[in-house]
Write a structure and sequence with these properties.
By secondary structure, this protein is of the alpha/beta class. It contains four helices and three strands, in the order αβαβαβα. Helix content is 58%, strand content 15%. Strands 1-2-3 form a three-stranded parallel beta sheet, with helices on both faces. α2 runs parallel beside α3. The longest helix is centred in the first third of the chain and has 25 residues.
Length: 109
């Protein structure tokens, strides 16, 4: 009887382990799904420092977890200093873009 109980417990433990592994693996982001996804960072005048932090955080997140392929800086009235920061971020990374109208950007992709 003890052998039967041990066998049932071992089978349940194996099923539980397989289930946990399946859930972990299926929850990982897929690189193919990120082909058309992009992250949008709206920016206004005087938000240059916050824009830089947001773009660098998104780049780290993308390299660590995936999920999107491009970062779009949405111009919502940037001043000259903020625009200069945005242009520098675009030159720093090939997949960062400035856009005035998000619908035009999405149609061009």
């Amino acid at each position: 009887m003890e052998l039967l109980e041990d066998s049932v417990l071992a089978a349940l433990a194996a099923i539980g382990l397989v289930t946990v592994l399946f859930l972990l693996i299926s929850g990982l982001p897929r690189r193919g799904a990120a082909a058309e996804a992009f992250a949008v960072v709206p920016c206004r005048a005087g938000e240059g420092a916050a824009l830089e932090r947001a773009v660098h955080a998104l780049e780290r997140s993308r390299y660590d977890c995936g999920g999107f392929c491009r970062i779009v800086i949405l111009d919502r009235g940037m001043d000259e200093d903020t625009r200069r920061t945005a242009v520098l971020l675009c030159h720093e990374s090939y997949d960062v873009t400035i856009c005035n109208n998000l619908s035009e950007f999405y149609e061009s992709e």
